[in-house]
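Q: Could you fold this chain for me?
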Amino acid sequence: MPSLAIPCFGFVYKNTKDFARMMKVKNVSVLLLLACCGLFFFSPRPVAAADRITVEAESYGTSRADALLKAKREAVSQGIGTVLVSETEIKNFILQKDRVLTRTIGSVLSYKILAEKKEGPEEYFIKIRATVSTASIRQDLAALKILLDSMDKPRMMVLIKEENGRNAETAILDYLSEKGFDIVDAAATAALMAKDDDLIERATKGDPVAAARIGADNGAEYVLVGTVSKSLGKNGMLADVGMASGQAVITVRVINCSNARVVASKSAHAAAAHISGDTAMSTAADKAARQLMDKKLFEKIVSSFQNMVNNGATLEVQVRGIPDYRTQKSVKKALDIDGVASIAKRSFGNGTLKLSVTFRGNADAFADGIDGRTVGNKKLVVTDVTGSRMIINLK
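A: Sure. Below is the predicted structure, expressed as structure tokens.
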């Protein structure tokens, strides 16, 4: 393997093999070719204090929100870099598929709009000056607000099953509210939890389909579900002074309501002492929930959101009114517009094509791009957009 110095986030890799191992790139030869040609790119700008870099970026979009989102993504790409990763699939020593994907890692900490202009009915221009970073934004509330705004402020629902109390649920709601999340009304959640409903039971035990259905029915884009088990532990030293040892274990999942996919799954344990056994267990549940959010779960949620904003969100798309197999292939091709990273067919039957589309933008921007496109002598007509779900009719 020939030597080749490759700069990456402040480090220099002496050869492509080391760098490929770090990036988990399967096709080292393609990586070498890209590096030699200058296509494997990281910004040569020096990293500022605390890994912060200020850049100017501009973009066009179908709306102001779409143009702003693309400008933020361009700022991250310019300031930090775009990684090109080669994926090669070989079966029986025959090349089946070879493609190059681009991924951007980083976040916008702050930005200022320098110029904006509507240049047509469906074309908007925005130029920004942004400060970007590769550091975690878990503790940066301003950067977190920008991230949530870029996702159109997704609503979170919290459903935690806890016997004799709601300490864990309250602690999680407080944590998310302090971070700026839009939360589904706690009173509505309490009313749901009071019902002896099989769907609620399945959801709190981690069934993603049941959780997604409940969340969607209550206007949430994401739902955090889980259970808390509480008990009294044996501790001779505490017993000698009249204290009880409360124990609590919390297990939760975060579900995307549009596609029932699990965003994160974590658990935590905590203990607390008190003269009252019930109080000791309640305090332990509160403590376990806060530890879960602060040390494990919240970072996972934020990382998932950052990846969606930078590299595209998954849209669940149904196209109806397709007469035959050949037409569905033409429909799939028509949906491959600018900003689409990938299209995966889930099923085709009874005139309906179901797809998972990874799109660098929001659902409205994708709908704007494909609504009215022609397939043969018919047109694609978007009839329903709910969260990340979309229904299109071929008319």
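A (continued): The first strand starts at residue 3 and ends at 8.
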